[in-house]
């Protein structure tokens, strides 16, 4: 009752909470989620997974911001793949059939499964080099006849 009266009368003491020991982290922003490449693979993995989905850990590839999603540590021999230069990385990534393999400064690997471009388009990382390819639809003679009938 006494505390309620102090508050009601505007005389309750105000003690600011100390910052020391506080565990709350503010809302993460995209500009703070850039990947710092000079770190061990486990740290890179934790950074990517920690920012998955919002705001998304990102790096610059071919002059555009690419966001990385769905990482896992890869404990195997270096897979075959096509090299991909990533700005700031000491070693190029590898686009493999399973995704994008990136390397920590300890030589260990992280597999990233999905990539999102600045325009919002998301692709499996394994399809990075084939993302812009389009395949022409080829119809059989029977299908061509059916298309004409439909027209």
UniProtKB/TrEMBL annotation:
Gene3D superfamilies: Formyl transferase, C-terminal domain (3.10.25.10). Residues 29-130 form the Formyl transferase C-terminal domain. CDD domains: FDH_Hydrolase_C (cd08703). One of its GO terms (molecular function) is catalytic activity. It comes from the Eukaryota. InterPro entries: Formyl_trans_C, Formyl_trans_C_sf, Formyl_transferase-like_C_sf. Pfam families: Formyl_trans_C (PF02911). This is Mitochondrial 10-formyltetrahydrofolate dehydrogenase. The lineage of its organism: Eukaryota, Metazoa, Chordata, Craniata, Vertebrata.
């Amino acid at each position: 009752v006494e505390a309620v009266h102090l508050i009601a009368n505007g005389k309750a003491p105000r003690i600011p909470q100390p910052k020391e020991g506080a565990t709350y982290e503010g809302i993460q922003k995209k500009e703070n989620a850039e990947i710092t490449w000079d770190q061990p693979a486990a740290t890179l993995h934790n950074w990517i997974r920690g920012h998955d989905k919002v705001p998304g850990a990102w790096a610059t590839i071919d002059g555009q911001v690419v966001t990385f999603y769905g990482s896992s540590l890869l404990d195997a021999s270096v897979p075959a793949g096509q090299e991909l230069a990533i700005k700031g990385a000491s070693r190029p990534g590898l686009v493999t059939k399973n995704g994008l393999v990136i390397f920590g400064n300890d030589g260990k690997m992280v597999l990233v499964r999905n990539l999102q471009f600045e325009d919002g388009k998301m692709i499996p990382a394994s399809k990075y080099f084939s993302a812009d390819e389009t395949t022409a639809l080829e119809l059989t003679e029977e299908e061509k006849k059916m298309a004409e009938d439909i027209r």
